[in-house]
């Protein structure tokens, strides 16, 4: 995992190996009908999401390979960026959902701040992308925004991006004719 420093924000970027990508693809494609039934227009006309219907898609759709890759990466990210290493995932807080971004779909600047005790981590896993269908922009914290540029991350199949949940981010418009499919999530780590 690479840790990118967007001072004072840390961003973790990891890429699944080919075997993991294959296992995740197989798992998701086997549950495609179930996943499609959960999609609705949650954030606008051109973004379909399961968020309004199911907030723990990893558990509901039994996406074990995807969940394991993400949870292992979340723990690695926290261990690499914190001095105190004894954090554990709070399974009761876990949220995960699928997003299908169609042509002209995008997401405005937002964050996932939950005002909770612990370390809240959010992120995205790119399941299907043509790499030109909308970048992820991570914003430096508000007190630093005049001094630092946004950190822009291009989508790539198998890429995982992690950041603290209170960090603002946005997703650029998909100006291509193919859908971008991604899985987003929120985790909370507690001692």
Silhouette:
globular
> End-to-end span in angstroms?
23 Å
Q: What's the alpha carbon Rg, rounded to whole Å?
A: 16 Å
State the major sheet: 9 strands, antiparallel
Determine the number of helices (DSSP H or I, runs of at least 4 residues): 4
Order of helices and strands: EEHHEEHHEEEEEEEEE
Q: Mean pLDDT, as a whole number?
A: 90
Quaternary structure of the protein: single chain
How many β-strand runs?
13
- Runs in which pLDDT lies below 50 for 5 or more consecutive residues are none
Helix content: 10-25%
| Percent of residues in β-strands | 25-35%
Structural class: alpha+beta
Task: Summarize the entry for a quick read.
This protein has 191 residues and is of the alpha+beta class.
Tell me what the structure shows.
The chain is α+β, with helices and mostly antiparallel strands. The protein has four helices and 13 strands. Strands 1, 2, 3, 4, 5, 6, 8, 11 and 13 form a nine-stranded antiparallel sheet that branches. Strands 7-12-9-10 form a four-stranded antiparallel sheet, with no helix packed on it. The two termini are 23 Å apart. The model has no long low-confidence stretch (mean pLDDT 90).
Keywords summarizing the entry:
single chain, 191 residues, alpha+beta, nine-stranded antiparallel β-sheet, four-stranded antiparallel β-sheet, 4 helices, 21% helix, globular
List strands and helices in order, with pairings.
Elements: E1 2-6, E2 9-15, H1 18-30, H2 32-37, E3 40-41, E4 47-49, H3 57-60, H4 64-81, E5 88-89, E6 95-101, E7 107-110, E8 119-128, E9 136-138, E10 151-153, E11 159-164, E12 169-171, E13 180-190
Antiparallel strand pairs: 1-2, 2-11, 3-4, 4-6, 5-13, 6-13, 7-12, 8-11, 8-13, 9-10, 9-12
């Amino acid at each position: 995992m690479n840790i990118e420093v967007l001072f004072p924000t840390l961003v973790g970027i990891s890429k699944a190996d080919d075997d993991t990508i294959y296992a995740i693809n197989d798992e998701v494609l086997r549950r495609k009908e179930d996943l499609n039934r959960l999609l609705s227009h949650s954030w606008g006309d051109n973004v379909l999401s399961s968020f309004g219907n199911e907030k723990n898609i990893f558990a509901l759709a039994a996406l074990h390979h995807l969940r394991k890759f993400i949870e292992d990466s979340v723990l690695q990210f926290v261990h690499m960026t914190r001095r105190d290493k004894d954090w554990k995932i709070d399974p009761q807080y876990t949220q995960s959902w699928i997003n299908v971004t169609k042509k002209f779909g995008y997401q405005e600047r937002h964050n996932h701040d939950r005002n909770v005790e612990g370390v809240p981590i959010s992120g995205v896993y790119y399941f299907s992308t043509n790499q030109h269908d909308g970048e992820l922009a991570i914003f430096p914290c508000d007190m630093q925004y005049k001094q630092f540029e946004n950190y822009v991350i291009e989508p790539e199949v198998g890429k995982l991006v992690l950041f603290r949940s209170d960090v603002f981010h946005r997703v650029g418009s998909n100006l291509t004719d193919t859908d971008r499919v991604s899985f987003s999530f929120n985790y909370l780590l507690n001692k």
